[in-house]
């Protein structure tokens, strides 16, 4: 708790310097991997670094995902992984080595068709399998929207629970990365939070990613699992080597405080944590909550915290209007109206398409959060 | 297999006793006519089969047209015996194959085609390098596919509206997009028509009838059909041209587009660049049909397969296809067979999933540029001197352009909020005000 497991996101530079573009990227990621992780060994198709520490290993986020997928395949012979370019390891290297280890019948490329990928996954899951589908970028999940919203989400309900596709998990990298523009940066989580019947899960770090992904895969409901692509290589953490799961629909207080509650998920938490640290220097004690599962979400943890602090701030990269922050705000106002000492604050993306050269202006930055913390506390 | 029931024919003469066989099916034995009508269950239909049987059976007027009956239970095979052949004019050495039919090219057009192919090659080399130096965030080349974009662009009319994928900047080049205009987009500077909003290579030009590129694949295809329908309603002597990759042809939008185009009889020319790969996905993992060309017929669209590395063949086929599209007011599908010699993009290392030999083969022996050069040289239209002049001036021009583009300012901050809607709504006005306040309070957070 409270330990900073995040590597700081490099502040995005205006003169786009980065060489690791996310546009269907692959080589830069692996290249950086082989230079950044000193002693890299291949263990059963999984790339891990050698510094062992009891039952944990230090690894980055995409490696943690890779391990979770490895374990899912290894522990259930009726599990499958598929999507565009997953066969050779995926454009973010998350499926590296899996086809070699588990064979092409269980880990395979699909034709380039997101609606096909999800529809196929629903059918596979409906026959009692674990179907782990990859959508190459969250920005490209929309062709599959109908299959997710009208099909996966209602498969159980509409059949009177005769059928279900609970074995389906849809993984997709989401969020800003410094130079992704409109179509390699989006955070579409709120669309899916409006859909009863699916779960939406977003991890903040390598360890969380592994534990939450395994829970999502094994949860008896279809889950949309968004992975913070900015952190694939940047976030490094000690991760348990063994099979382990973290509970869904349980938020976590990752920093305790008494003056204001901050709620977020995924990559944004690292920015919020920086803001909390800076606020502390000004004598403001912040409590930071990682929501982890967006639906069904853990209102109790958030409510208990707001009852303590009397103030709430929510932050996400997605545009503020209609974002999931609005739902949290409304729910907490319903429950804690008399306890609130200031309006609920939201520090989010702008109501514009995700920009390219103005990305730093669009983003809910540390200082935007810090300003909002101060004005909420001094309301 | 379950229960299979052979339904009785309507005519009494040919009535079959309905038989139902569990687990296995067989031909009904009790024909009123001779037994010989029943044939073994093998083989497949050929058109002559259907003709033979035609007289014996009544044709039924199904919705959409009459369909004749046959007594054999035969499936249409997944493919006809051999692959659809590929139209080509120039052999690998740039010599016109004797007897080949093609649209005669005027010297001026041919030379411009060649010059633009070379320019595209130089642009790709230099921009790729510029990306490697970190001066732009992303790039993607047309290497190996230069003849597709240039050959097709040359055969179109400037009024034809282009709905591109992303590997067809050659069309823009042909239409007169300047090196400076390309570079401005790559740098996202003040002069970029897209106002610095999209990643590099997402060009667009209203003036040149080139609809701005969108990263989500295949979305442009049904849009091209709608736009074509508009041209038709306006009695325009023009069509729309939709480009796509082999990978994109798997998207739902591709199928929607072909079907709409056929049904609406829209003057749209679909050009599929089948370059063998969609990032790491080989065509054999993309479809099991004989490529994309055969999908035309399934939707009721005329189609042709063309050697995409033969600029003359591309030109001729597109010229002819365009005449059909505009003349008959109907869609045509052209599959150009080519090869993505480059990595998918600057984010890709394709040696992870394909053999270097394969790349080398296409690069060395099948490259479209030397092939076309030999042909124009053979016509006496091009010399070594022309070649070295072209290459050195183009390189110089590009370097100059890069300098200009790098010096140019970024777009105005106001452009972050404009064009979301026709007018800036109140929520965005508020956000702009608040952002300006933040910039004032934290100037270090923001690039100048
Ligand atoms: C809807 C959608 N899904 C996935 C992607 C990611 N992506 C970008 S390019 C590409 C491969 C496209 O291959 P192809 O259509 O054959 O074109 P080529 O790159 O070969 O020219 C993929 C999967 C995307 N841009 N849009
Ligand atoms: Mg392709």
Automatic annotation (TrEMBL), chain A:
<protein>
    <recommendedName>
        <fullName>3-methyl-2-oxobutanoate dehydrogenase (2-methylpropanoyl-transferring)</fullName>
        <ecNumber>1.2.4.4</ecNumber>
    </recommendedName>
</protein>
<keyword id="KW-0560">Oxidoreductase</keyword>
<keyword id="KW-0496">Mitochondrion</keyword>
<feature type="domain" description="Transketolase-like pyrimidine-binding">
    <location>
        <begin position="59"/>
        <end position="234"/>
    </location>
</feature>
<dbReference type="GO" id="GO:0007584">
    <property type="term" value="P:response to nutrient"/>
</dbReference>
<dbReference type="GO" id="GO:0005759">
    <property type="term" value="C:mitochondrial matrix"/>
</dbReference>
<keyword id="KW-0809">Transit peptide</keyword>
<dbReference type="GO" id="GO:0009083">
    <property type="term" value="P:branched-chain amino acid catabolic process"/>
</dbReference>
<dbReference type="InterPro" id="IPR009014">
    <property type="entry name" value="Transketo_C/PFOR_II"/>
</dbReference>
<comment type="subunit">
    <text>Heterotetramer of alpha and beta chains.</text>
</comment>
<dbReference type="InterPro" id="IPR029061">
    <property type="entry name" value="THDP-binding"/>
</dbReference>
<dbReference type="InterPro" id="IPR033248">
    <property type="entry name" value="Transketolase_C"/>
</dbReference>
<dbReference type="GO" id="GO:0003863">
    <property type="term" value="F:branched-chain 2-oxo acid dehydrogenase activity"/>
</dbReference>
<dbReference type="Pfam" id="PF02779">
    <property type="entry name" value="Transket_pyr"/>
</dbReference>
<dbReference type="Pfam" id="PF02780">
    <property type="entry name" value="Transketolase_C"/>
</dbReference>
<dbReference type="InterPro" id="IPR005475">
    <property type="entry name" value="Transketolase-like_Pyr-bd"/>
</dbReference>
TrEMBL record, chain B:
<keyword id="KW-0479">Metal-binding</keyword>
<dbReference type="InterPro" id="IPR029061">
    <property type="entry name" value="THDP-binding"/>
</dbReference>
<comment type="subunit">
    <text>Heterotetramer of alpha and beta chains.</text>
</comment>
<protein>
    <recommendedName>
        <fullName>3-methyl-2-oxobutanoate dehydrogenase (2-methylpropanoyl-transferring)</fullName>
        <ecNumber>1.2.4.4</ecNumber>
    </recommendedName>
</protein>
<dbReference type="InterPro" id="IPR050771">
    <property type="entry name" value="Alpha-ketoacid_DH_E1_comp"/>
</dbReference>
<feature type="region of interest" description="Disordered">
    <location>
        <begin position="428"/>
        <end position="448"/>
    </location>
</feature>
<dbReference type="GO" id="GO:0005759">
    <property type="term" value="C:mitochondrial matrix"/>
</dbReference>
<keyword id="KW-0630">Potassium</keyword>
<dbReference type="GO" id="GO:0009083">
    <property type="term" value="P:branched-chain amino acid catabolic process"/>
</dbReference>
<keyword id="KW-0496">Mitochondrion</keyword>
<dbReference type="Pfam" id="PF00676">
    <property type="entry name" value="E1_dh"/>
</dbReference>
<comment type="similarity">
    <text>Belongs to the BCKDHA family.</text>
</comment>
<dbReference type="InterPro" id="IPR001017">
    <property type="entry name" value="DH_E1"/>
</dbReference>
<feature type="domain" description="Dehydrogenase E1 component">
    <location>
        <begin position="115"/>
        <end position="411"/>
    </location>
</feature>
<keyword id="KW-0809">Transit peptide</keyword>
<dbReference type="GO" id="GO:0003863">
    <property type="term" value="F:branched-chain 2-oxo acid dehydrogenase activity"/>
</dbReference>
<keyword id="KW-0560">Oxidoreductase</keyword>
<dbReference type="GO" id="GO:0046872">
    <property type="term" value="F:metal ion binding"/>
</dbReference>
<feature type="compositionally biased region" description="Basic and acidic residues">
    <location>
        <begin position="429"/>
        <end position="448"/>
    </location>
</feature>
């Amino acid at each position: 708790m409270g330990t900073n497991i995040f590597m700081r996101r490099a502040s995005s530079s205006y003169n786009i310097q980065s060489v690791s573009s996310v546009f269907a990227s692959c080589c830069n990621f692996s290249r950086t991997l082989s230079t950044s992780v000193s002693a890299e060994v291949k263990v059963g198709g999984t790339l891990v670094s050698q510094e062992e520490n009891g039952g944990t290993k230090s690894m980055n986020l995409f490696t943690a995902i890779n391990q979770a997928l490895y374990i899912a395949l290894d522990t259930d012979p009726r599990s499958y992984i598929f999507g565009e370019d997953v066969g050779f390891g995926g454009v973010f290297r998350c499926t590296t080595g899996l086809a070699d280890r588990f064979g092409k019948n269980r880990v395979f490329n699909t034709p380039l068709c997101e609606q096909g990928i999800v529809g196929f996954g629903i059918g596979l899951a409906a026959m009692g399998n674990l179907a782990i589908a990859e959508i190459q970028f969250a920005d490209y999940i929309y062709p599959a929207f109908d299959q997710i919203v009208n099909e996966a989400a209602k498969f159980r309900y509409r059949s009177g629970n005769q059928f279900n596709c609970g074995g389906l998990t849809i993984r997709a990298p989401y969020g800003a990365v410094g130079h992704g523009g409109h179509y390699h940066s989006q955070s579409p989580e709120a669309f899916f939070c409006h859909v009863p019947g699916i779960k939406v899960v977003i991890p903040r770090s390598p360890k969380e990613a592994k534990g939450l992904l395994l829970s999502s895969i094994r949860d008896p409901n279809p889950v949309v699992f968004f992975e913070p692509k900015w952190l694939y290589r940047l976030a490094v953490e000690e991760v348990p080597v063994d099979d382990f799961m973290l509970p869904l629909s349980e938020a976590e207080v990752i920093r305790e405080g008494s003056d204001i509650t901050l709620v977020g998920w995924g990559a944004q938490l690292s920015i919020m944590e920086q803001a909390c640290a800076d606020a502390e220097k000004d004598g403001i004690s912040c409590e930071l909550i990682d929501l982890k599962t967006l639906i069904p979400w853990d209102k109790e943890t958030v409510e208990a915290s707001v009852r303590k602090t009397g103030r709430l701030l929510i932050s996400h990269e997605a545009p503020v209007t209609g974002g999931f922050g609005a739902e949290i705000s409304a729910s907490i106002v319903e429950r804690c109206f008399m306890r609130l000492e200031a309006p609920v604050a939201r520090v989010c993306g702008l109501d514009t398409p995700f920009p390219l050269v103005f990305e730093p202006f669009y983003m809910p930055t540390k200082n935007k959060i810090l300003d909002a913390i101060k004005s909420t506390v001094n309301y | 297999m379950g229960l299979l029931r052979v339904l009785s024919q309507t005519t009494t003469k040919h009535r079959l006793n309905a038989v139902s066989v569990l687990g296995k099916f067989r031909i009904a034995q009790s024909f009123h006519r001779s037994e010989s009508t029943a044939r073994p269950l093998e083989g497949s239909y050929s058109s002559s089969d259907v003709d033979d049987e035609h007289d014996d059976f009544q044709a039924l007027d199904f919705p959409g047209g009459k369909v004749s009956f046959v007594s054999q239970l035969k499936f249409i095979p997944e493919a006809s015996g051999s692959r659809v052949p590929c139209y080509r004019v120039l052999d690998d050495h740039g010599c016109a194959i004797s007897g080949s039919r093609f649209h005669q090219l005027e010297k001026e057009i041919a030379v411009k085609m060649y010059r633009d192919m070379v320019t595209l090659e130089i642009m790709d080399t230099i921009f790729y390098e510029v990306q490697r130096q970190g001066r732009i965030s992303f790039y993607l080349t047309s290497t190996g596919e230069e003849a597709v974009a240039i050959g097709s662009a040359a055969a179109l009319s400037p009024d034809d509206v282009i709905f591109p994928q992303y590997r067809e900047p050659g069309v823009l080049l042909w239409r007169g997009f300047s090196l400076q205009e390309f570079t401005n987009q790559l740098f996202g500077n003040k002069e970029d028509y897209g106002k610095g909003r999209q990643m590099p290579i997402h060009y667009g030009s209203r003036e040149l009838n080139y609809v701005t590129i969108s990263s989500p694949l295949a979305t442009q295809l049904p849009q091209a059909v709608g736009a074509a329908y508009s041209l038709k309603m306006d009695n325009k002597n023009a069509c729309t041209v939709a480009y796509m990759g082999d990978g994109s042809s798997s998207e739902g939008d591709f199928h929607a587009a072909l079907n709409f185009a056929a049904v609406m009889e829209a003057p749209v020319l679909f050009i599929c660049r089948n370059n063998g790969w969609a990032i790491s996905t080989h065509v054999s993992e993309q479809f099991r049909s004989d490529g994309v060309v055969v999908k035309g017929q399934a939707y009721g669209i005329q189609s042709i397969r063309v050697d995409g590395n033969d600029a003359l063949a591309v030109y001729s086929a597109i010229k002819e296809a365009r005449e059909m599209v505009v003349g008959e007011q109907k869609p045509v599908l052209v599959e150009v067979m080519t090869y993505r010699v480059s990595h998918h993009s600057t984010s890709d290392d394709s040696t992870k999933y394909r053999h270097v030999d394969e790349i080398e083969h296409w690069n060395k022996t099948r490259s479209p540029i030397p092939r076309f050069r030999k042909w124009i040289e053979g016509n006496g239209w091009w010399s070594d001197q022309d070649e070295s002049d072209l290459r050195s001036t183009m390189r110089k021009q590009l370097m100059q352009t890069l300098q200009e583009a790098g010096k140019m300012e970024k777009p105005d901050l106001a452009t972050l909020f404009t064009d979301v809607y026709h007018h800036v709504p109140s929520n965005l006005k508020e956000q702009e005000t608040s952002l300006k306040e933040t910039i004032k309070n934290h100037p270090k957070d923001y690039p100048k």
